[in-house]
Every structure is written in C-alpha cells, then in structure tokens.
Design brief:
- With 279 residues, this protein is an alpha/beta fold.
- It has 2 domains: 210 residues, Spore Coat Polysaccharide Biosynthesis Protein SpsA, Chain A, CATH 3.90.550.10; 36 residues, no CATH class.
- It contains 7 helices and 10 strands.
- The strands form 3 sheets. Strands 4-1-5-9-6-10 form a 6-stranded mixed β-sheet, sandwiched between helices. It has a two-stranded antiparallel ribbon with strand order 2-3.
Length: 279
C-alpha cells in the first residue's frame, strides 16, 4: 500500500514522556514565512543511522544500554518529542538490525535496507541521508521539507530538546541547526603541544605566561553530535549541516558523551542512573 504524508497542522502533539511540562506547538512568525516561502508546518523526516559494522565496539548500535538496545533511546526521544514528525526511519544495511529495531521500537521503522556500499567505516553521512530521502520519494511518493538526524551514539538527548531545537530553527532565519555544548575544560586557549624532548608548549604559539585564568576566558562551544537538522534543499546544496547559515542549539555538557568505546556505556549508564534518582 502506498504510504501517504498527511498534513498535520491540526494534529495535537504527543505529550512527551521525558518532561512534565507541556511542549507548545511551533508558532512560526510571518517574517519567518516570508523568509522561507515554505509551508506553515514543515514536514520533518527523522533519520536514525544504525549500520551494523563497528570495529571499536562490535554491534554497538544494538548493544544494551540501561536494559534497551542503544538505538532504542534515539527512537524513543524522537517518538516523544511532541512535534508531529511525519516519519522516523532507522537506516541500516542489516536485516538482523531491522528485526531488532522493529521488535523493540515498533513496525515500519525500517521500510527498506540501506545498500551495503553505504555502510562502511568511511561512508560519510550525506549519501546515507540522500539515499533515504530519494528512496522514500521513489517508493512511497513522500517528500519532506526538513531532515532531522539523530545519531544512536548520543543517547542522552531528550524529546523536549528535539522539540526546542526544531522550534528554534523554524523561528530563526537560518537553514540548518546543530547541537553544541559549552566547555571550559577543553578551551583551545588552554591547549598544549609537545615540542622537542617533550617540552610543553602553548598550542597557539603564545609566549609564557600564556594562559589567562579560566574565569576570564570567553565561552567556546563544541558540536556534540546529539542533534542535526536542515531544510532539505539547503542540505542537498551544502552537503553538510554546519555552514555559514547554521543555528546553534546548546545542550548540557553532561549530554555530550558519545558511545565510541566500551567504557562509554558504563559512563552513560551511570548518568542515566543519576538522572533517574529523584531529588
């Protein structure tokens, strides 16, 4: 049966499970609409990439985290964000992964498999997203205004933050959004390099005394991998989420942990346990 993308301007948002506060529907200003020249409520496709190949942590995307497969946490955040996402797609080349995802998270999340040539360690994100967009159009006649990317390796984001980030993007003049976190520990002014005979040298080439007090440093932000969004036409043109027309959405620093190594599972489970304790 051919899937349809229905207008959702009159649809009430789901109440998110991760927040007691009501999340308002997106209210786009007239100025914003003139700038965009697009629909009042953008049609959003959420893509969660979960390839099977992983050298650092084998099968990390389905490895249990807090009792659920890692990819489950991103799917749940998307489902409970309060914004009417038109479709959530888990992009994987593995039928085993597809079965696990649909068994844990619900049917229809893997409408097709990703080609194996788009599932290598060196495969960039752009062709994976374009493959998903183009395949949905070819097979189901579905088109979208905005693509939202949620990496399974950043499981600490919340549904409310997804909603807030999309709201911020749609109320702004920008065409793309990425999540960042403010860091004092990793400030570039405080960085060093090793010279001859392991001599410690200021990384930026400054002379000693090189570094001001931490309290005097201007804020710096790093991309944390939790949230990416872009209008589709801009993403096709720029082939990236971060460029001169990108909005920053600030996350908490403790949410910046990503699953790259086995010990990251223990660190993140510790954070989830801490967050689950009242008070």
């Amino acid at each position: 049966m051919k899937a349809k993308v229905e207008k959702t301007t009159k649809k009430e948002p789901k109440e998110p499970k991760d927040s007691k506060k009501d999340i308002p529907m997106i209210d786009i200003t007239d100025e914003h609409d003139i700038y965009r020249g697009e629909v009042e409520t953008p049609r959003v496709l959420c893509i969660i990439p979960a390839r099977a190949g992983s050298k650092g942590v084998p099968d990390k995307n389905i490895k249990p985290l807090w009792g659920k497969p890692l990819v489950w946490h991103s799917v749940e955040a998307a489902k409970n964000c309060g914004y009417p996402l038109q479709r959530i797609v888990v992009s994987t080349e593995s039928q085993q992964y597809a079965d696990i995802v649909e068994g844990w998270c619900g049917k229809g999340l893997v409408p097709f498999l990703r080609p194996s040539e788009l599932a290598h360690d060196t495969t960039p994100t752009y062709p994976v997203i374009i493959h998903t967009l183009d395949t949905l159009k070819e097979r189901f006649g579905e088109t979208y205004d905005v693509v939202l990317l949620l990496e399974p390796t950043s499981p600490l984001r919340t549904g409310q933050q997804i909603n807030e980030a999309l709201t911020a993007l749609f109320r702004s003049k920008y065409r793309s959004m990425v999540s960042v976190f403010k860091s004092e520990q990793c400030h570039p002014v405080l960085a060093f390099k090793k010279g001859r005979d392991d001599q410690l040298q200021p990384y930026d080439g400054a002379e000693y005394p090189a570094h001001p007090r931490r309290q005097a440093l201007s804020p710096v932000y790093f991309m944390d991998g939790s949230l990416y969004a872009s209008f589709v036409d801009t993403y096709r043109q720029k082939q990236s989420f971060d460029h001169e027309d990108t909005l920053a959405y600030v996350m908490e620093e403790w949410q910046s942990f990503e699953v790259d190594h086995i010990w990251d599972f223990y660190v993140i489970e510790g954070i989830l346990k801490w967050r689950s304790v009242p008070g």
